[in-house]
Amino acid sequence: MSKSYNKTIIIGRLGNSPSLNNVDGMCYTTFKLANTTFSNGHENIEWHNIKAVGKQARVCCQYLSKGDLCCIEGKIEDNHIIAERVTFLSSKKKAD
Prior knowledge:
Blueprint: E1 8-14, E2 21-23, E3 26-39, E4 42-53, H1 55-63, E5 69-77, E6 80-88
Parallel strand pairs: 4-6
Antiparallel strand pairs: 1-3, 1-5, 2-3, 3-4, 5-6
């Protein structure tokens, strides 16, 4: 029997601000993340569906918004990347 390994790391910008959802007492959020690659002088943008659950979902909703840059570490499940770790890469502007 062969073993498999399901791990992905992606850096990109949010296409929408996350919002908190609650189903049967489990909170989660989903959002889209844009990843840009270049091939033969052409820019290619891929959109990835991200899902965060529990405390991770609450933190994402509190600190992330559309356009923010972040790094998602997780696993691919169905059509989503299930976030196991989210690193915020955008610096927030301070209010004047």
